[in-house]
């Protein structure tokens, strides 16, 4: 089937999503949306096997509650792409705002450049087939991976800027945050700890790095070593020991 | 017990002459108060008792007696036994005191200082037996005006686009209690009862178990800060969606379901790993402002193609009216206000007993603020938190609520005796537990009937109260504060409630 073209110029998000839904229900496997400018909720709650190419800058909550589709954005994103996403993939050729992949339960979010604060907050995994992956090409801001309960966040730091944020992994009780380079203890949030990044870890994340680099035509070779810091939960029960019965 | 411990809270005694040593108490007590000795005697450890009354209700001879605070402290008006024991507890543990059920502090109850009106001579009262009483309630946005046109063929056409509303056969709904906090049998009983009585029950933030799917048309699904169990199928199944911002029992803080309660089934329903703590952060981390709230409301509506009402639940706090006015402008269809007496499975005691305001004042101030701003039609107001009987409901509606949520009352109808040990996961009534042998004690067929009976009887009483006041439609009672009078309420409170004192 030929790709379906949608011109989003001057279009409100609801009719835009209606057009996308209609195309998907009619069997479209590729949808190209041009002239996107701030429309929120694109592909919100959308199910199915479809690739949506978004040309422009979408508004907040791109791919919220999404289950299956792939969104490829040629441009930057506002806050929370991949919010509470179940499965599917979001590829951002640019940077994104705060709370990227908030509460994401499955699927992948790839951001070529930078993200804002609270990236990957409360990401969680579940069962065999729900393991969310967030890869950031360059850098992230503070409060990365807070309350994280599963999945993997990888920050590649491609422009070699060191991660200067703090509060990394506050309240983390599952999953892993993997940062290129070093991290100081004082940059950690409560409940997070630094562990050694091993060859086994590299083996585990290599496929994600390769897939990420493949999406942006970056040579993955530079990133396939063990120069990472791994941050995990110091306990899967961060609140155990805080309370006493009446 | 150990040396240096505080006196026991309850003393259990068995009338040995009455006792026939059937051992039902031994079997029924999940806290281990009773032990069968080799010689067939029953040994009692009163210190383990929580006053859940399971043994008492199961004893065929009424042989068990329970007394509270059997050992006196030196009486003191300030240093109550509770105050002293909390100090002792915390000085030993260095921890936050955890408590179950609602606010246990002796604040005055405004409901009990409000009285309802009835007709005498003029405007005759109505007998619900012979006159139709309209209790049907629609929750959701109402248009500010209707554009109705007569067409050329004589037919009437409504041009105004109506927002989706929930239709309730009674203004009583069952509040959100999650699978995890309560058992599946308990939730199933509530869902069946909601379906039987034409009303709705809330899932809480625990996902929607497949056993509840048959009742999904009577289920409101909750989206809270942990986003547990939330995916597009969950949102599609619910009759409405509720965003939980806060809870009356613990305003401003999140929730933690301890790992012990996260069994395989709970983990599947919540979509989290088994055995790990389920942590709901204090705020939604995609909501840091009222604009962000509107973003989530619209995100949920967009996901479900604007077919379902979206509610926003907040705890009743000092500026509740201003927050509700913000919610009314966020595209939400109803605002749920949970008063400071709202129940909980577990909350820090200091929050449960000290944070928030009474629901009565919150309803009145929210209703007033929305009216003053001309946006009352934009949202329905649902009140919850400490509603004990049909009079509380009638008063809530007269103060300005559209409907109420009941929680603790529904649990009591299923056996709960408000012992407040929900967080221990040992509920012998099979409600606040995931232990299979305890859960199997609760028969959803029987208990759904009890819950449905409660809703039916309160609905009957509501229609009687309305009839006596000469009101035949719930709409005419809503916000009708002239049918309330305050008895022994101070001027400031009367002013907030916009209610006159008795005799005026």
UniProtKB/TrEMBL annotation, chain A:
Q: Which InterPro entries match?
A: Archaeal_gltB, Glu_synth_asu_C, Glu_synth_asu_C_sf, Glu_synth_lsu_3
The superkingdom listed in its UniProt entry is Archaea
SUPFAM superfamilies, alphabetized: Alpha subunit of glutamate synthase, C-terminal domain (SSF69336)
Q: Where is each Glutamate synthase alpha subunit C-terminal domain found? A: 26-191
Q: One MF term in GO for this entry? A: oxidoreductase activity
- Entries under Pfam families matching the protein: GXGXG (PF01493)
Q: How is this protein named in the record?
A: Glutamate synthase (NADPH) GltB3 subunit
Taxonomic lineage per UniProt? Archaea, Methanobacteriati, Methanobacteriota, Stenosarchaea group, Methanomicrobia
UniProtKB/TrEMBL annotation, chain B:
Instruction: Please give the InterPro entries that the UniProt record associates with this protein.
Output: 4Fe4S_Fe-S-bd (IPR017896), 4Fe4S_Fe_S_CS (IPR017900), Aldolase_TIM (IPR013785), GltB (IPR024188), GltB_archl_type (IPR043578), Glu_synthdom (IPR002932)
Which GO MF terms does the UniProt record name? 4 iron, 4 sulfur cluster binding; glutamate synthase (NADPH) activity; metal ion binding
Provide the binding site for [4Fe-4S] cluster 2: 29, 49, 52, 55
Top-tier EC class? oxidoreductase
At the top level of its lineage, which domain of life is listed?
Answer: Archaea
What is the annotated signal peptide range for this record?
A: none
Report the cofactors: FMN
Q: What is this protein called?
A: Archaeal glutamate synthase [NADPH]
């Amino acid at each position: 089937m030929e790709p379906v073209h949608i011109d989003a110029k001057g279009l409100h998000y609801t009719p835009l999503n209606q057009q996308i839904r209609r195309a998907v229900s009619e069997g479209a496997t590729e949808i190209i949306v041009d002239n996107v400018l701030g429309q929120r909720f694109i592909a919100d709650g959308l199910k199915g096997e479809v690739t949506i190419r978004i040309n422009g800058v979408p508004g907040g909550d791109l791919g919220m509650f999404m289950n299956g589709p792939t969104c490829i954005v040629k441009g930057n994103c506002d806050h929370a792409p991949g919010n509470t996403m179940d499965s599917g993939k979001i590829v951002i050729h640019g940077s994104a705002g705060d709370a990227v992949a908030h509460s994401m339960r499955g699927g992948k979010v790839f951001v070529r450049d930078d993200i804002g604060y609270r990236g990957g907050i409360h990401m969680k995994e579940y069962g065999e087939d729900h393991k969310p992956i967030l890869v950031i090409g360059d850098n992230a801001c503070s409060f990365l991976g807070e309350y994280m309960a599963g999945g993997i966040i990888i920050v590649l730091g491609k422009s070699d800027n060191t991660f200067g944020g703090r509060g990394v992994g506050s309240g983390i009780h599952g999953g892993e945050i993997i940062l290129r380079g070093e991290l100081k203890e004082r940059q950690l949030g409560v409940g997070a700890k630094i562990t050694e990044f091993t060859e086994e870890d590299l083996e585990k994340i290599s496929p994600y790095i390769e897939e990420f680099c493949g999406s942006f035509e970056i040579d993955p070779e530079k990133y396939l070593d063990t120069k990472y810091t791994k941050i995990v939960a110091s306990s899967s029960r961060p609140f155990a020991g805080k309370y006493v019965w009446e | 017990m150990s040396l240096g411990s505080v006196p026991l809270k309850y003393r259990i005694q068995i009338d040995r002459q009455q006792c026939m040593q059937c051992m039902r108490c031994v079997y029924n007590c999940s806290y281990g108060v009773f032990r069968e000795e080799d010689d067939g005697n029953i040994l009692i450890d009163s210190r383990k008792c929580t006053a859940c009354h399971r043994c008492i209700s199961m004893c065929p001879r009424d042989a068990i007696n329970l007394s509270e605070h059997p050992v006196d402290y030196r009486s003191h008006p300030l240093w109550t036994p509770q105050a002293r024991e909390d100090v002792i507890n915390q000085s030993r543990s260095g921890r936050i005191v955890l408590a179950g059920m609602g606010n246990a502090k002796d604040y005055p109850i405004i409901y009990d200082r409000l009285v309802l009106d009835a007709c005498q001579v003029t405007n005759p009262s109505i007998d619900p037996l012979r006159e139709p009483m309209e209790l049907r309630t629609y929750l959701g946005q109402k248009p500010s005006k209707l554009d109705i046109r007569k067409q050329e063929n004589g037919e009437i056409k409504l041009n105004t686009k109506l927002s989706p509303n929930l239709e309730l056969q009674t203004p009583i709904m069952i509040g959100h209690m999650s699978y995890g906090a309560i058992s599946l049998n308990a939730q199933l009983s509530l869902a069946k009862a909601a379906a039987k009585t034409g009303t709705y029950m809330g899932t809480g933030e625990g996902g929607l178990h497949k056993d509840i799917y048959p009742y999904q048309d009577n289920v409101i699904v909750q989206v809270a800060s942990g986003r547990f169990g939330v995916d597009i199928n969950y949102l599609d199944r619910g009759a409405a969606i509720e965003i939980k911002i806060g809870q009356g029992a613990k305003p401003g803080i999140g929730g933690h379901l301890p790992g012990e309660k996260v069994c395989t089934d709970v983990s599947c329903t919540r979509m989290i790993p088994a055995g790990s703590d389920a942590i709901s952060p204090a705020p939604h981390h995609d909501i840091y402002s009222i604009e962000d709230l509107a973003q989530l409301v619209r995100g949920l509506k967009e996901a479900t193609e604007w077919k379902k009402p979206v509610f926003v639940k907040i705890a009743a706090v000092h500026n509740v009216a201003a927050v509700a006015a913000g919610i009314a402008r966020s595209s939400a269809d109803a605002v749920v206000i949970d008063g400071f007496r709202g129940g909980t499975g577990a909350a820090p005691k200091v929050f449960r007993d000290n944070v928030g305001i009474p629901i009565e004042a919150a309803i009145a101030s929210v209703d007033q603020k929305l009216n003053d701003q001309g946006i009352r039609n934009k949202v329905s107001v649902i009140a919850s938190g400490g509603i004990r009987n049909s009079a509380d409901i009638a008063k809530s509606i007269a103060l300005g609520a559209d409907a109420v949520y009941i929680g603790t009352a529904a649990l009591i109808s299923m056996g709960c005796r408000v012992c407040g040990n929900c967080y221990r996961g040992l509920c012998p009534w099979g409600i606040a537990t995931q232990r299979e042998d305890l859960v199997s004690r609760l028969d959803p067929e029987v208990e759904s009937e009890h819950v449905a009976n409660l809703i039916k009887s309160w609905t009957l009483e509501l229609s009687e109260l309305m009839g006596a006041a000469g009101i035949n439609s719930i709409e005419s009672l809503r916000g009708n504060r002239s049918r309330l009078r305050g008895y022994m309420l101070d001027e400031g409170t009367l002013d907030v409630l916009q209610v006159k004192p008795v005799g005026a």
